[in-house]
Amino acid sequence: MSTVADLPLNARRPTDYETLVAASATTLDAIPGAVYVCDREGFLVRFNSEAAALWGRTPSLTEPKERFCGSYRLHLPDGTPLAHEDAPMAKAIEDGVDTRNGEVLIERPDGSNRSVLVNIRALKDHRGAVQGAINCLQDITERKALEAELRGQRQALEDFFENGAVGLHIVNADGIILRANRAELELLGYKPEEYIGRHIAEFHADAPVIGDILRRLSSGEQLVRHPARLRAKDGSIKHVVITSNCRFQQDGQMLNTRCFTTDVTDLHLAEDARRHSEQKMRELLEALPAAVYTTDAAGRIDFYNKAAVEMAGRTPQFGDEWCVTWRLYTPDGVPLPHDQCPMAIALKEDRIVRGVEAVAERPDGTRVPFVPYPTPLHDANGKLIGAINMLVDITDRKQAETRQKVLIDELNHRVKNTLATVQSLSAQTARHADNPQDFVVKFQARLMALARAHDLLTKRHWEDAPLDALAKEILAPVAGAAQGRVSIQGPSVDLTPRAALSLTMALGELATNAAKYGALSAEEGTLTVIWDIRREPGQPAMLQIDWQERGGPPVSPPTRRGFGARLVERCIETDLRGDLDLKFEPEGVQCRVTVPLASCAAHG
What we know:
37% helix, 6-stranded antiparallel beta sheet, alpha+beta, 17 helices
């Protein structure tokens, strides 16, 4: 009688600690990250070159030995000194407690500091006793600095909006006021709840004027000091001028308008208000994070903000022509003379220039890709009086394009790995097949399991795969033939692509054997696949999957260990660092798979 010949036998294997200690230096250096290992006394026994580089030193593995960490000094994220014996590694050694994404500050011998995430796992023997621990260090210094910079920029922008001296409000495509700053509310005397959320036309004294303003803005026109009359809360009429433009979505639909409102009620104050508005506008431009500068009609620079100085890497001189940059290039690296730059074209041809890119070279040789927005300026009579240009740094966008290329390269890598997996499946299946027909059946089953997992991951852009959908895909061929004798149940769990592929191959082997030799080979046989998340105090969350067969032919332990057995063992214990508990009960195969949730769940 046939049995489950391809399933694994329990065998004594080296523990994780023994494997790591026995690994060569080359093997440790191949790990993409800083890694070190301590023994059960906390003494350092192995570390790779990235760990030494992160510490800024090479600790000794002989007398005098170092304990718990190879860093010069340790601190908590707030700078509080942290003794090595109080570090998370010591906790892992003493109590077997793992650490996930703990943050510490490493001080190097040269006095520099690096912010680091630590991920520590206690390494235990087969009886559960701690043999040591492994620590994976991730340098997040640059990320922390970037986060701080982004927070500062957000705060600056919010302060710019809320505390600007000129009234400012934002209106959506339907004319509803979304936001208004303090100056706007004080101008008209309204409280935020009386103004925000209502239609802008309710506050305009002249319906045709606001209708014309919205129409012109929605068509992409910019309004500069457009006259209008607003009705204040006390019933008075405020004569104002509005400076506004629109933001548009990629499909060309209007998103919202941004309106500066200036009160010019009193003719005597009109001139003062104009000068004040111009000054405030310069201050606002000064506060903008984008580089902004203006020129006169001849192209001579007469204003630039701090962001322009930072972007150009130099301080322009008033009277410089056309652009604040030191040198210019086209995106493909061809030198671009300043008198042929977009700002020069905008002034010479008296037109707005859009849709071009350029590259600014600083005096120190660094280059910054940017998009210019030169716009001619005219006086009340339509005469050209100068232009304003905003240079938007698109370094992040270019880096995103680079990242996209990296993703494409990663896709190529995945394809190569898949082909290598298929090649391995083919060779190993052929090696253990009894005959050509047996090879075809087993190889096609394994290949289809891999294909179904790839199809599911592709539909979800290789981000994650729901375990229930994956299980149904794997068991679909046998579930259809079993006519309701297959039960699948468990909570929602999204698997990483790697975990999805590994579980697909492992469960696929179990399903194939169940259909060929096990419970599903008999008319009365049933199969139940149940999973749950097991959480115990002080322990990492585990994904537990129970495979239970009933009602099939009597089962006895396998007489040999084939490729299928090794495949299942590699997928669960090696790829996912899980545990595999297989029992050959006479009434049916029972298999329990236990995998750390952090190693398999996409959001665990």
